[in-house]
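Morning. Coffee machine broken again, so started the prediction first thing and wrote up yesterday's gels while waiting. Chain of 251 residues, entered below exactly as on the submission form.
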Amino acid sequence: MTKPMNTIDASRRNLLKGGAAVAAVTLASGITLRTIEANAAVTGPATSAKRWGMLIDANAPEGVWDLAVEACKAEQGWGKAEADSKPATDPQWIRKVSIKDPKSGAKATLPVMCQHCANPPCVDVCPTGASMKRADGIVLVDKHICIGCRYCMMACPYSCRSFVHEDVHGQRPHMPRGKGTVEACTMCVHRVDKGQKPACVEALNKAGSNAIMFGDLNDPNSEIAQAVSKYVTQRIRSDLGVEPGIHYRGI
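Came back before lunch.
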């Protein structure tokens, strides 16, 4: 006998409640993804009223980008498990890139991470919906339904996603990682939802640097929105029409 729809919905809700307390989910042999703790505080559902973004000053001293990369590694747990280990593909959460103007010879070094596009190509090509964009502009990968097809990696014009080829170690409870899935910068969504800044931004601020500014681009009174309206900024490959949420000064 088929159960009424309201009974099925109630059972599903109870299952989700019970599952929230589970520390880890095993998808298959060798693949274990951790879930977020049940009592993690959030500010509420993501809405299009906000548009989270960053403004990066490429004129900042190169050393600050090392701080940003190390802060990301520590926060998200994607650093090397051992000193002599080298992953098959280097994680692309955030990386330093050196650029040079062929005409003037001017050089700059800047960090590149997921650009959190308003029209993300990675989302368009994903066959399972694992690649997704929140209403507030943060682009994420749901590791529980990612099948590792890597279409999103091919579609990303910024080469900002990487595939996990090996078993992972030292996972963080807020950041599930698993062999056979794709990963990228999350803009530290677990921190943003608690009203905090991304780890890279906080690390630079503690070092006395404002080289990466984070905030709501939709709020005209926010520091980042005022800075974007005041300074000449650029977005990488703005000609593609994907509308990145990451702005740069000095390139």
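The radius of gyration is 19 Å. Going to sketch it on the whiteboard this afternoon.
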